[in-house]
Amino acid sequence: TAFLRIALTLEVIRHYVGGPIHVMSGYRTPEYNKKKKGAKRSRHVVGDAADIYCNHLKENKLFHIIQKLQDTGVIPLGGLACYSYDKDRRSFVHVDARGTQPRWRKTPHK
Q1: Of 43, 88, 101, 102, which has the most beta carbons under 10 Å away?
Q2: What pLDDT digit, counting tens, does each position of 58-110 carry?
């Protein structure tokens, strides 16, 4: 199921980053997704997406670790995007396990 795919994906990511990951957003009801101005076809509504961050890694480093895990088949292919903000808003990485590899934001520098 979708929930199991993302849960297992997050566990593998946690292992590879060597520390805890924090989930800012996981499953969303359609109503909550609309309230948050999420995409109409959001993977959060499907249940196989998470917005995450690590206190010990910058979001661009986390992005590249996840990209490598997808590219080498360690975790399922999925959407991946880096949302970098200033100090007033938490930066994070969106990861999902949809089975294809879309990218919708500029890939961050290493």
Answers
A1: 43
A2: 999 999 999 999 999 999 999 999 998 877 778 999 999 999 887 876 666 65
Helical ranges in 1-110 per DSSP H: 2-17, 30-35, 43-46, 59-71
- Whether the CA torsion 75, 40, 105, 88 is positive or negative: it is negative
- Which residues are registered as beta bridge partners of 18? none
Coil vs helix vs strand at 94: strand
**What type of residue is 71?**
D
pLDDT, tens digit, 9 for 90 and up, residues 14-36: 999 999 999 999 999 999 999 99
What residues contact 4, with CB distance under 8 A and at least 6 apart? none
